[in-house]
Amino acid sequence: MKLRCTYVLATALALSAGAALAQKGDVKFAAEPGRVQVSIGNQVIATYVYQDNKTLRPFFEHLKTPSGIQVTRNRPPVAGKDPVDHPDMHPGLWLAFGELSDHDFWRNKGPRVVHERFAAEPAGRGDRGSFAVVNRYEVDDKPICRETATYTVIARPNGLLILWDSTFKAEGDGQWFGSQEEMGLGVRVATPITVKGGNGRIQNSAGAVNEKGTWGKAADWCDYSGVIDRKRVGVTLMSDPAIGPARKPWFHSRDYGVVVANSFGPRAGAPDKLPLQADKPLRMRFAVFVHESPEDAPIDLAKEYSKLAELLR
Fold first, then answer.
1. CB within 8 A of 168, min separation 6: which ones?
2. pLDDT interval class at 257 (50, 70, 90)
3. Does pTM surpass 0.85?
4. Best label site of 42, 78, 112, 175, fewest CB within 10 Å?
5. What CATH class is the domain 9-311?
């Protein structure tokens, strides 16, 4: 059985005089102990962290637009400036599962995801670059499954795209993914663009808004955005256009600043327990769109979503 869920991470550049500024910088990586710094041109746009004492799974922190506006919450959150809830569970952008074979890989209370090795070293090639990792999901130092994840970063005239392609293989039979809120691809947005306490707005592809309208609903995409420095910036989680209506992820979207694209459970057309078998790898493909535009000229998210199918061919 294969589960294909795609979301996109991308960034639209700042606009000047109503015209888009072309992003001409090359994609570059800088390897450091336990982390990989990701840049476009001279601007660091994210850091991939794969070894941390508090968050026991890999994640991307301090996501920025190519012009340098940070769109995820400070890590660690700054008291007096940021809400300080879930400091380790919500590190920026992450993939995690609150119920994997009755074990919790979301809340950092024992089970952990261990970076085993780079399957492909970070390497840039002009306007794109990529790297791949092998992660080991451990309970009491014993693996229950392994994940091979490939991250591809693409610089484009309207921003950047990060594709996230993960394949899971069980270590032995009897493994499964469960059904709860804390499952899937999550992002914690910057404090100024939250709905609660900021100037933000949540909107999905059906036109529903904020937590009341979008929570628990399947959609093509769900956007969380607001205004920083007179620019409208935000993060849109997008589903795979190839997935039929019965397999769309549902969104765990909260006014306090978190949104999770959840491809598990009946709301996403999946069973309460989705089997993970040793001889049948499970593939999940993801991405995220991070956008920036003039305050009075929001991005056409429906148009961006329509382009996604072309980009994924």
1. 145, 146, 147, 276, 281, 282, 283, 284
2. very high
3. yes
4. 42
5. mainly beta
